[in-house]
Amino acid sequence: MSAAGSTEERSGHPLTQLWGRYRQYRRRVVLAFLLSTIRKIMDVVPELLIGAAIDVVVRGADSFVAGALGVESRQEQLIWLAVINAVVWILESTADYLAALTWRNLAQQVEHDMRLEAYGHVQGLDMAWHESRPTGSTLAVLNDDINQLERFLDTGVDKLYQVALNVLLVGAVFALTSVTLTVLAFLPIPVIVVGSMWFQRRLQHRYARVRATVATISGLVSANLGGMSTIKTFTAESRELERVRAASEDYKQANAEAIRASSAFVPLIRMAILTGFTTTLLLGGFYALDGRLEVGLYSVLVFMTQRLLWPLTSIGEVLDLYQRAMASVRRILHLLDERPVTVPGDVALPAVRGELELAGVRAGYGDGPDVLRQLDLHIPAGEVHAIVGPTGAGKSTVLRMLLRFADPREGAVRLDGVDLRELQWETLRGRIGYVAQDVFLFEGSVADNIAYGAPDASRDQIVRAAQQAAAEEFIQQMPDGYDTHVGERGVTLSGGQRQRLALARAILRDPAVLILDEATSAVDNETEAAIQRSLAEVTVGRTTVVVAHRLSTVRHADRIWVLEAGRVAEAGTHDELVARGGSYADLWAVQTGLAVPD
């Protein structure tokens, strides 16, 4: 697959940009056009043979065939024409098969490459970009828009070329026969071309609106399917159906406007065809009656007029396909023009100890206010540190900084003394085990999900990780144990089960840094106690950062950081903070009901 095109390539017409992006397929494109040319030439020849046959019947030994082949017998001349016709049809059929095969395979390959390029590009974009954009809108580009391009490349390009080549070949036959008839027969073509350009301009913005409404529907349906339990819980089925109905109505109206414009095209072309055909029929007939035109040539021109003008009726359909495809290509290229803000550095640490530091960090979301305000936080390698505080204090933002889902507006975040902006992704994220508060499981088995971060892990290693995450017991009770299919997003599992699988997934990776974001919030007290015992073993000698609202999960941490309004309010061990009687002691008292020391 070719690399992304340059800025110059992206500033031109969508088809020009595609030509620049996929240089490796240019030979196949040339071959496809060559086969299409042979097919069209062979397609025009039978009309010439019909004229030759009529000339044989009318003129006998004086026919063009007799002079060309040196055969006087009408029967022999017709036999020769039949043989030539058979060869032409065989060549046309062969070229038609090969052209269709080449165009379709080319379309499939470009579709495949563009989907991979677009998906790979999307994976490289910042989390902030994903969070600010509906998932369905991105899906519409990766699926529907790319499929729309494939449909155009499959048939549309060839159809446009066939029409243009048809005009050229038939025009050559007319020009060799009669300049006057050529001019009169071709008079409708400028009208058709101008009309096509006018329709194209009218259709362009209509199909852009169609693509936009498709993205809206895709985003709405995708979001609703993901939130089906919430819809049912709040008996909002009718309300959501109405929202989908309104979005679908917008799509229907947008399509209706485009259809009204495109449907008027063919009837207008028919009128132009009528003019050209009638002119050839009458004037050519008068020439034949006056002896100025051979009967055989007259019949050829009548057939050729039909051959010249009638295919132009398909321009409406092809333009329709073209405009849809160009609207889609523009959306695809716009997506590919998005650039990540957080890009990896080029430093690879030979070994990661796990020392973490936030120095004077000021950070926030998008153009919003600061969430972290000159935050200083140091976590020595191998220690367990906890981050607690009220909602909105900045706990999750700290984790975003450590994972480098975003960069600070000011200050620096370091791993083993190196700014994260200088590190390769493999050195940073490749050495971190992360358990998110909102656990995401992939389609596949329990074992597949545990081994997601270490795909080469053995079954024994997977089982050991599950045991350390207190997941072994419920996994063994599942129908197929570790081979049980969990379904998309793990919807067949409870929240606590998903959290334990996510914890096993992080443990199996054997990371230098383990980050737990409310990793036990969905489990019961007994399971939490089991996980805590396992974590006591897993975290030995491993840097661990724990974010928790439930303080019982962090009381044994080497150090607890209490955040308030994006700053460190206090820090220390559990006993030190409780004895201090500050905000942590207040939180502890609320959760345990214990009296707070004076």
Automatic annotation (TrEMBL):
UniProt GO molecular function: ABC-type oligopeptide transporter activity; ATP binding; ATP hydrolysis activity
Domain annotation ABC transmembrane type-1: ranges: 30-324
Residue ranges of coiled coil: none
Entry's transmembrane regions: 167-199, 268-289
SMART domains registered for this protein in UniProt: AAA (SM00382)
Organism whose genome encodes this protein: Ornithinicoccus hortensis
Keyword tRNA processing: no
SUPFAM superfamilies, per database record: ABC transporter transmembrane region, P-loop containing nucleoside triphosphate hydrolases
Entry protein name: ATP-binding cassette subfamily B protein
Cellular component GO terms held in the UniProt record: plasma membrane
Family per similarity comment: Belongs to the ABC transporter superfamily. Siderophore-Fe(3+) uptake transporter (SIUT) (TC 3.A.1.21) family.
Compartment list: Cell inner membrane
Membrane topology classification: Multi-pass membrane protein
